[in-house]
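The methods section describes the discrete structure representation at length, but only in general terms. What matters is that the chain and its backbone geometry are given together, residue for residue. Nothing conveys this as quickly as seeing an actual entry. For illustration, here is how one protein appears when written out as sequence plus structure tokens:
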Amino acid sequence: VSNSWGGILAAAKHAGAKFPECVAAQWALESGWGKHTSGHLNFFGLKGEGTDCVTWEHFDGQDVTITDSFKNYDSIQECVNDLVTMWYKDYKGYKGVNRASSKEECAKLLTVEGYATDPNYATKLIRIMNDQA
């Protein structure tokens, strides 16, 4: 899997994302088009035991800088699989965003379900998807 829009699209399709372009938009937004990771091969800011990084979150109307721990991955496909399993598919009682009927609704559900704290996250994803269409 290549660290590119097309590579992430292919990985997302393989992982079972209903809207792989939404996964690719997350990759573009979260990693600066594959240039920055939060853990080894972690292009989505997936938190968990691994690498400590400084990041920002949006809480109570404020942007706050925090240090958090981010997962490390052995491959891009493994990272994409983890994202799709935990957020796109139904997982441990959580209804995944694959339930959306459009890529725009998928982006909005990621915010509603708590993937991102940025109130403009869905708008940013939709803009990226539309620019790549």
Summary: The first helix runs from residue 5 to 15. The mean pLDDT is 93. The longest strand covers residues 50-59.
